Amino acid sequence: MAEAVVIFVLERVADVLAEIQLAKDVRLEILRLRDELKMQCFLKDADAKQEDDLQVRNWVSDVRNIAYDAEDLIDTYILKVESYKYKKWNFVKRYASTLKARYKIGKDLVFLRTRISDVSISHEAYGIRSTGEGTSHANEGLLKLRRSTPHGQDKDIVGLEEDIASLVARLVSEDQWRAISIVGMGGIGKTTCAKEVYNHADIQTFFDCHAWVYISQLFRTRDILVSIIKQVSTRTNDTAELGEDKLEEMLYKLLEGRCYLIVLDDIWSTSAFDSLAKAFPKNHSGSKLFLTTRKNNVALQADAQSLPHELRFRSKEDSWKLLCRKAFTESIERMCPPQLEEIGQEIVAKCAGLPLAIVVLGGLLSRKRRLSEWQRVLNSIRALLARCPNAVSAILALSYYDLPYYLKFCFLYLGLFPEDYLFSARKLFRLWIAEGLIPYYDGRMEDLAEEYLNELIDRNMVQAARLSANDRVKHCRLHDLVRDLCISKAKSVEFLYIHLKYGIFSPFPCSDSRARHHAIYSGFSSSPYVSTPNLRSLLFFKVEQIECGISLSDVCRRFKLLRVLELEDMKLRRIPSAIGEMIHLKYLGLRHCSIESLPEEIGWLSNLQTLDILENAKICRVPDVLWKMKSLRHLYMYVCPFAGKWRIDTLQHLQTLAGINIDSLRGINSANLISLRKLRLAGSFATNRAEIFYSLANLLNLHSLSLKSMDSLFPSLSALSSLRHVIKLHLSGGISKLPNPHEFPPNLNQLILHQSRLENNPLEILEKLPYLFVLRLKHSSYRGKKLKFSANGFPQLEYLELEFLDSLEELEVEESAMPKLRSLQITYCQKLRMLPEEIKSLTTLQELVFEGMPRRFIDRLQGEDRHKVQHVPSIIKS
């Protein structure tokens, strides 16, 4: 881990030398410091030995502390010198203060180099040897790999077939209310098994309504009740002001008389179940509660008459099969080469049949093909088991140690997120980049961050929870045991600190912590303003529906070295002018903070990469200072048309520009926005239409475009054909006539229509788009009664979504239409009577999703229309 810290600081020093104009004497001292810190050849060996040797561990800690002190010294100097530029001082005072700061950092750097020299010499006394050249740069080799495509759901289900069949039979066979539980230790596959059962075609057909909620150790009854209500009813706006008793009564009435299935995943205590039990009517319509828990007493509390289904450890044969599927992912047969089989069998035996251990170990072995590498893994497992008899803990720890240095910090960073938190991959990339965890290279750092996340997923350290239509990861989460490991390792290197309610969680004494990354969960009852002035990250999470009091002025005053400040859902209203003094800030998250304006001083944040002020409906003023923030990469706005006009054509690094008014695009040289890839515009397109589309055509890297018309109708959209690089298009607003096929962007593969209010069948035009891969017809996009999919139409379409088409009554599918369709989702189309007979000819269809559909539609699907969809592996109704 010390290797990761030192390399991280070296890259930070390199950034400073490249970006900041330093005085000659200061630059010279920093160069000398950089040379002294280049000791990776010793750190690799030290990192390997520190688990077994206290002296080596202390040596590594000294190196880590020196590296952090070096970073603090440089950042503090830059903060001082840069702050002088904004003070109303005369030249003499500014020059004298700068000289004083230069003298101090020079003196401190000399002392720091002495400390480095002393520590470096002492490595021989601890038997730390050189391993040759330092670790190669993070992105070498990695970018040569083909980008992996992790799977959102586990297709390697091994050894659960009988469990799934038994549970499905129990859930659908009885007319009585029952609470059926899966019981087993952590990591044995309870949630995996429950998901397979929940998505089983017989389950989806048998029950009228379904809901899945995750309970965990930290939960609020109110949040769980609201979540279930949202899944079984459309009356989601009625819950905001209701207390627990009223919500309980509301849910009871919604479920009464219906055949429901409610999954309570990972429920830990009988008191947790008791707090929810009264909301579930015990009717005679075959309704079921379906629990996963580690404790038998919880299962019996839920239903003493129902025998808990206990998951067993995998057999020797199933364990071996599962390991091979995870370790040999590039092979179609997923077979182990003969020379590795004997040692592989010995390795898998150490997992004792626990699926999580097998899966994680398979991810580790998937990147090793030589017998000597597998032997080293086996030796490491033996050594870890000698210290820690718990097999899963030992194997998870081994998987962490096997991570390359550039992934260790990225993995530890995930420990900041709350338990079972569904985190956005895009947001994670921006946080990693802001923290300096992603090195700069010739391509996009976001692409490299995606490679890092995919590698963590390939190693089964992170779970991909949601995928996009093109199989890219959208959201992720950590298994709770992996999160425990993450926090434990972060604690050992003082990487992070989590503020929770008193007495629930405390990774280490806060007063002694040098942790640079802090997370504060709402409901925290003590002051978060601890004595950590060198804090680099401060993230707030609203994990409960409780306001978390915060003084942003205090944050700006106390933590001037912050790089990341995430305040989403904190009710701030006002941003203090002191925000401009946080010159190291690279990520500022102000989404849904009820802010009304931004101060002029925000323009001082010249290093800011991400500014997110979405979902602030009251914001009425944004000063014209965005042009100064030349490091901006992602800008998310929520601004009314009267909030002003901004110059933005100086932002050559800008990749995402969302929520901006069309007027801000007029009168600027859009060709200067050379990095812009994603753009969301709103406003009136009726005037200066030619100028608008000319500006859009100049954006040569634009891939994703969203246009929202504030007029009753879009003007002619024929100029879309000039957008040759756009592959994703979202049109929101009235359209009197769709463009002809040749008038759409020529390379378009994703199209979303919303509030288009089209009277004529749009498919007659859209089915001729040659590369269309995804089509989403959203709320009120079509007013007609019938949609006809013609023969040979939509040759490349794989995803089709129909949502809130209030007049739609009939679908017609001709033979050979949509030959590649994989997923069909129909949501709240209340007048749609049934699926067409021809749906059974769509042999490529893998998934059908129905949400908020009328009772008669669902009844037909479960009865006379069942033969139409019996070939589809996954049918989900909610």
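(ticket continues) Second input and output from the same batch:
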Amino acid sequence: MSRRTAVLAGPPQWGRDLAAGQLPDNARICWIGEPPAAGLPEAVTRLAARDGRRVLGRTVDILVYDAHAGLDADALGAAAGSLRGGGLLVLLTPAWAEWPTRPDPLLGRLIPAGHGRDEAGQRFLRRLMAELEQDPSVTLWTPEQPPPALEPTPPAAPGGAYAYGCLSADQKTAVEAVMHVVTGHRRRPAVLTADRGRGKSAALGIAVGELLRQRRVQRVVVTAPTIHAAEGLLDHAAERCGGERVERRRLRCHGAEVVYREPEALRERPESGDLLAVDEAAGLPVDLLAQLLEHAGRIAFATTVHGYEGSGRGFDLRFRAILDAETPGWQAVRLEAPIRWDRNDPLEAWLGRVLCLDAEPATLEDGGGSAAEIVPVTQDALAQEERRLRQAFGLLVAAHYRTRPFDLHQLLDGPRRHLFLAEEAGAVVGVVVAAEEGGLDPETAHEVWAERRRPHGHLLPQALATHAGIEMAPTGRALRIQRIAVHPRRRGHGIGAALVAAVTERARGAGCALVGTSFGATPGLIGFWRACGMHAVAVGARRDAASGEHSALMARGLDEQGVAWVRQAGFRLGAGAPALLGEPLARMEPQVVLAVLRAAQGAEPPVLSDWQRQELVGFAHSLRGYAAALPALWVLAEVVLMDPHGSRGRMAHCEAAFIGKVLQHRPWADTAQRLGVPGRRPALAALRQAVADSLPE
């Protein structure tokens, strides 16, 4: 059944009162935004504009979205997914001609501190308005017209036409694939992928419920980015097995149980039960998914490919390689048939076009790349050329782990953005987006350094002030690369480096002191940015929620002041690393630690004293104990950490384990695992040999 859209364009209170007065009594209704003056009936679920994504996992007949309270692309896209087939989206907007000129309360997220709202564009909004005007399934009402009847089409009759109560053949196949994970051979995971509305989360839940009903499992562990995202799975499991939700995170049935665990809790204490079910897997970092895959003998994943968060395509490209390498017998199940609405649902179609939910990179043959041309492009030009926009955004979706509709809004309307495309025979094969930062006054810079203020939109200069202690860094102007992506078939051809060079020259020409970037740190990415002339200046103390990695900030000085700041930041990073590795960075991968510190300019390794050298000789060639030698080993670890040329001899193969043990205080079991030896004694012997090869001549 098709869903419809009704737009009530006029004064805020008129739209709210009209919508509230026309709502039927017996419908499931969700209202996002400000309520009417008279309030809403208790049966209506009301959410603030910022909480629109909390409707995920629910099914509603009517969704009212109040755009007077601000246009949140993520919330609108997510909330529309809760609307059943035959349902009605009611969009409350300002008077149509006035909408682009009206202030948007949520627009501040696009605007860096120190800049006005008038600097943000209206390209995304005009794109939405043009789509609504052209789509025949959308009806627009104004105060001059008779009030509309806001009635949804009655829902289709309940009941499944396929086994297990499934609503499509695809869903039945998915259920059986998940059940086979338990009944078949170990290490044969199932991966369910679908565009939204295809019933993949329901299939995962039905499979769990059927396994409980057949008493084939005693304990199933469920995880997802949030408990909200797992609600549908748990509800379908309970319905299928006749179980009881004894609490929000726990389901019991026939003496067995299903429990929800937070993703980070599973990172710290792996647990899989008889089955580990991972829903909305694209919302979790790849490294965490790989860890779950490693520890669980029986695991099933489900994720949306073209979802409101736009991240599923990146998951599909990245995680597939890990599955092929670690569990070559994995089974892919693609659900194609829509369940919640018609295959050609008009609301899903116009929303997908506006939000670029299905944007894909250009279709290319292997080879080429040498003829790519780097061209600057304005936001106006990109907004007017749909093909270029969709190809560029498709690259960002494929290359970055979590790309959302908000990122499209920011790409089109964020002020002081600089865009370059790499094009080959008319196809976009690379894209880079950079933002102007810094230029704050000295008083604000001092407040940033003192950590009394965190001005929005100035990440790089703020990090230099807070992490490196450079008080005046926020007064300098910088150009920070926010996003960069190269077509998968053109990587390794120098296109990424050429895009970075274009941004660097733009920054130099604009008189910036710095060009830099921030990203989830991996040795490969650090190597790329180092090859582009950048140096590490700071590292985040916590893992990034999107990438699952610690964030690294790297920069290049473009004038005398910028060069000095980068060197000073590198010195501070090196000097503080041993203390940071003992606590806030204790769980950062040692290989990443080594890559970051060796990319820092100005880091100065300590010089071993005579007594420290003697202690190390005793540890390496005699039987001096680890505890007795630890103070000297600590200093040697700093030398290894900051050696830009890398370690030599056997230390080159042991340096990650050495850094992890000495500076991060990891247990001997971890050290032995990294060295590939069976326990503490051979691990200690390997470290003695590595230290022997590392002693200065």
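Agent notes: The radius of gyration is 28 Å. The first strand starts at residue 4 and ends at 9. Closing as not reproducible unless the customer responds.
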